[in-house]
Amino acid sequence: MTDDQNELGRFFHWGPISLISISLTVIGTSWAWWPKDTSFTTRAHFGLFWLLNLLAVYNYVMAVMVGPGFLPRKWQPLHHREAKFLQFCKRCDGFKAPRSHHCRQCDRCVKKMDHHCPWINHCVGWANQAYFVYFLVFYMLSNLHAAVVLSLGGFHYFSDSLLYGDIRRIKWSSLLICVFSLGLSVGIVLCMLKLICIQIVCIVKNRTSIEQWIVEKASCRRARSKRQLKPFVYPYNIGWYSNLGQVFNIESQTRGRGIEWPVRKGCDQFTLTREQLAQKAEKRQRTRTFKCTRHVTGHWLPILSQGLMVTICVPCADDPRIRLEPNDLIRVTRIRNYWLFGERVLGEASDQDQNKKLRKGPIRGWFPRRCAIDVTESMKTADSGEPDSNEIAPKKKCIGKEKQLKLN
Length: 408
Fold this sequence. Notes:
- The chain has 408 residues and is α+β, with helices and mostly antiparallel strands.
- It contains 13 helices and eleven strands.
- A five-stranded antiparallel beta sheet has the order 10-9-8-7-11. Strands 1-2 form a two-stranded antiparallel sheet. A two-stranded antiparallel ribbon has the order 3-4.
- Helix 1 runs parallel beside helix 3, helix 1 packs across helix 4 and helix 2 packs antiparallel against helix 3.
- The relative contact order is 0.08.
């Protein structure tokens, strides 16, 4: 089980509640429209339907209860000299092991984090990815079975009523519920099929969704670099069969405890982390400093304070929105037409805790672009100690006057 102290509480969230409600609707409607005959084929299909649902429920519960595997807080590498190859997590006050990433929703560093799934209200990672994939497969099959039953049952009911009965005796409410449940089951099948394809592709390549993004950035970094950089080789792709064993074989999965991983020849445990550190360094070089000029509420849809266009063009991301006050400084890393993404600059270390208490909410997230101005160049000038052009001009005039006096 996961070391989360509130395992059962994860089910009391809009994601699991919505999923359970949709599933009960489809199951209940399928049961009501199941053929009434008691033949062996009908009973076998009925047993298969419930078996698929029970397997889906089992793997769903295990995916939630087992969890992805959290890295211990204040985690340190076994050898201190390895720390220079790892990123440091301020929230967990420890280093991030290879393939580990911090999840904002769970507020923990997750081993081999793939993504945070709202439907299980948990991350998908090292310990529960197999359960998550099994859940997707059995849930898709159970809804496919339900879709076949509902479509055939609804068709026979409607056609028999037209041929042998009176159309006015059709229970339209029951028929509408059947059609509605059929739409739900077909939609679930399509969604599950897409998720299964994404997961299988990642597993076969032994990559997570986050690592796929890191590999793409590595290729872009080498394409636009003026220096001849060594080609990046993804270290964890050790062959499709062994890659599958890293997820579905218990012995292979638990061998490195989610911290140490088998790598391909020519790579080591820190090949990926070194590339991450290099990408972070380039990102810091591209960072722009903005100064807040007006109050920012931190609302997701600030139509009253920021206008219609800012509200319509909100970023399609689950990143938080931050509250800002005039004269706040923000280090911006992502720039859009109407929104900026960055981290609010806190005061000195002694004042950080006090600043967090005075202003609630996150310090890193999106905010409207119209509420801040770029002060990067002016801050660079101030740091370098070079005078502005307006200050240089009067000095030149004074020097010219001194020369004229000397000549006279």
